[in-house]
Write a structure and sequence with these properties.
Blueprint lengths: L6 E5 L3 H10 L5 E7 L4 H12 L1 H20 L2 H10 L12 E4 L5 H10 L3 E5 L6 H4 L5 E6 L7 E2 L2 H7 L7 E6 L9 E6 L11 H22 L13 E2 L4 H10 L4
Parallel strand pairs: 1-2, 1-4, 2-3, 4-5, 6-9
Antiparallel strand pairs: 5-7, 7-8
């Protein structure tokens, strides 16, 4: 396929961004990767508390501090297996491709994105993009969301689908980015099939791998001028990190790890 479009990535420092770059670059030329500095955990928790309340955020912190390290420790072998079977490449993004910015929404970022003049901006692992950026950069912004939208907006879409005994909507979405939270028009959706040996820490890697496949299809469509947005799955809910008591309840009574 002859590549007629200019592609730039707009990312955070998540592992998924590295996997996405390496996966896409096997079939497409990625001009540059604009990478933002992560938002501080203090700011994340402060913003989250405004939405969910301090009690729920305290429960999320307990989950992250007390349970998550244990889950990760006992998942090392399975994680290695998943990375191999899903062919996720963790090789660092070449330094000459990276342009660092403090925030994807900064004036600096806006200036850089305008100068790069991309046809498509592949979004991955960064904060919500502001209207200032979306309305002033003449490119198609396309994101991979680890969940089936709009039913599983937010985070941990695979985990929450399993909790809800909704395995048919345990998956991933590639969509246009708009000013909302995972509300843009859907380009592709697909399900993933984690095994009984997987858990909260390994589910997302199935979604990342499938998301790379779907993003390639979306980029091919843009390149060929055949892009066709569609409706997502009915339902509209934003999901968050589980609290320690939510995780333990669903682990014990629903068997979701």
């Amino acid at each position: 396929m002859e590549q007629k479009i200019k592609i730039v990535m707009l990312v955070g420092e998540a592992k998924s961004s590295t996997f996405m770059y390496n996966g896409l670059s096997k079939d497409f030329v990625i001009e540059k990767v604009v990478r933002e500095t992560p938002v501080s955990m203090k700011q994340i928790l402060k913003n989250r508390a405004k939405r969910l309340g301090y009690f729920n955020v305290f429960g999320q912190i307990l989950f992250g501090v007390l349970l998550l390290p244990i889950i990760r420790k006992f998942s090392k072998n399975q994680l290695t297996k998943v990375l191999e079977t899903q062919q996720l490449d963790s090789k660092p993004i070449p330094e000459d491709k990276i342009i660092s910015v403090n925030s994807v929404n900064s004036d600096e970022s806006l200036k850089i994105l305008k100068e790069l003049n991309a046809d498509v901006i592949v979004v991955n692992g960064c904060r919500i993009i502001s209207k200032k950026i979306l309305n002033n950069v003449p490119a198609k912004f396309i994101n991979t969301h680890e969940g089936i939208t709009p039913k599983y907006r937010g985070i941990h879409g695979c985990y929450w689908a399993l909790v809800n005994k909704d395995r048919e909507n345990c998956g991933v979405t590639v969509h246009f980015v708009d000013a909302g939270v995972d509300t843009g028009e859907v380009l592709y959706q697909a399900t993933v099939n984690p095994t009984k040996n997987d858990n909260f820490t390994t589910y997302p890697f199935y979604q990342t791998a499938k998301g790379i496949e779907l993003m390639k299809l979306a980029l091919q469509d843009v390149n060929n001028g055949t892009i066709s947005p569609k409706k997502g799955v009915e339902g509209n809910h934003i999901w968050y990190h589980p609290t320690i008591w939510q995780y333990l309840y669903y682990r014990i009574f629903r068997g979701v790890k």
